[in-house]
Design a protein that fits this description.
By secondary structure, the chain is an all-beta fold. The chain is built from no helices and 5 strands.
């Protein structure tokens, strides 16, 4: 995965019901998790979370993605 700041990383993804989840690999000092959750045909929630080491995940940001 690459972002618009030029950062790159390897992530593992899975589909969990109506959710698509990507997580950075275990062992990273700072771990990231990105989630897209389909709420209905017009709304998907996007969520960005982080964990330091083995600590719990905490929310960085969350946005609704609405069909135009």
């Amino acid at each position: 995965m690459a972002d618009n700041y030029g950062n790159t990383g390897v992530y593992r993804g899975r589909i969990d019901g109506d959710r698509l989840v990507f997580e950075s690999l275990p062992g990273e000092a700072a771990r990231l998790r990105f989630t897209w959750e389909i709420i209905d045909s017009d709304l998907t929630l996007w969520r960005n979370e982080m964990a330091i080491g083995d600590a719990d995940w905490f929310l960085i940001e969350e946005y609704p993605m609405v069909r135009a």
